[in-house]
């Protein structure tokens, strides 16, 4: 039974790790898009906020 518990903890750790990695990659990609298209990003931000 301890083997299944270890697998559950390992699976949970892997899920949290991949979720964090995916979120970091998405935020990095968005930052690159904003840097590349700053005028369009500024208009979009103004539209979303105002």
From TrEMBL:
Originating organism: Plectus sambesii
Main location: membrane
Listed PANTHER family: PROTEIN TEX261, TEX261 PROTEIN
Topology term for the membrane: Multi-pass membrane protein
Keyword Transmembrane: yes
GO molecular function, one term: COPII receptor activity
Highest taxon listed in the record's lineage: Eukaryota
Membrane-crossing residue ranges in chain numbering: 7-31
UniProt GO cellular component terms: COPII-coated ER to Golgi transport vesicle; endoplasmic reticulum membrane; Golgi membrane
Name this protein carries in UniProt: Protein TEX261
Protein location: Membrane
Protein family according to the UniProt entry: Belongs to the SVP26 family.
Pfam families: Erv26
An annotated GO BP: endoplasmic reticulum to Golgi vesicle-mediated transport
Keywords: Membrane, Transmembrane, Transmembrane helix
